[in-house]
């Protein structure tokens, strides 16, 4: 299993934030209503969910404001600029995690598991941002933003947190893939996603 430290996880979070920024920046004016691998959610709703989750991580750490909308019930309507909404959420998340010592073992998170070591807490925020970056990218016809190295690290984190969350509907059941599959396909399958997803599939 890939070893991750608190410092590694913060770097992974920054990469995931970059991937999400890039995915959202590439959405065309007519792309916000496109279907995504998140069943029943379009691109706008995935963005709302992803921003809400990052704000939730920040709020858990800092005691600041929580998302104004339930991330699991996104309205599909954004009041204002989508890019600005995302930047506010990502900046709050990054700033919050920057206050946490690299060896912290009890980091508050907006997850039912309760406080977690930094490498899992920051990794969970990274997992959320990176996978939703993938959702938006493939929904809008662009390549996966997930690298093999990042996917290996994210899978290590996912195996620490995902199983209890499936009961809440946060992740679909794991899909079966070949033992020699690539890290990104393996990660996506563990989260209930098909790497070859298309709107018609």
UniProtKB/TrEMBL annotation:
Domain Mycothiol-dependent maleylpyruvate isomerase metal-binding, chain residue ranges per copy: 13-137
Pfam families assigned: MDMPI_N
Name of the featured protein: TIGR03086 family metal-binding protein
Annotated organism of origin: Catellatospora aurea
Phylogenetic placement of the source organism: Bacteria, Bacillati, Actinomycetota, Actinomycetes, Micromonosporales
């Amino acid at each position: 299993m890939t070893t991750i430290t608190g410092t590694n996880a913060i770097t992974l979070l920054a990469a995931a934030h970059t991937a999400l920024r890039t995915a959202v920046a590439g959405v065309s004016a007519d792309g916000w209503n496109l279907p995504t691998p998140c069943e029943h959610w379009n691109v706008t709703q995935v963005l709302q969910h992803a921003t809400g989750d990052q704000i939730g991580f920040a709020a858990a750490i800092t005691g600041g404001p929580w998302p104004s909308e339930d991330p699991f019930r996104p309205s599909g309507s954004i009041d204002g600029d989508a890019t600005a909404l995302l930047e506010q959420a990502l900046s709050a998340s990054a700033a919050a995690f920057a206050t946490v010592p690299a060896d912290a073992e009890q980091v508050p998170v907006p997850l039912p598991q309760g406080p977690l070591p930094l490498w899992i807490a920051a990794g969970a925020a990274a997992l959320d941002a990176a996978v939703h970056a993938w959702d938006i990218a493939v929904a809008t016809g662009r390549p996966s933003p997930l690298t093999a190295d990042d996917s290996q690290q994210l899978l290590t984190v996912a195996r620490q947190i995902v199983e209890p969350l499936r009961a809440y509907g946060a992740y679909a059941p794991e899909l079966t893939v070949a033992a020699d599959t690539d890290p990104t396909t393996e990660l996506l399958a563990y989260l209930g996603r098909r790497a070859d997803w298309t709107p018609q599939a």
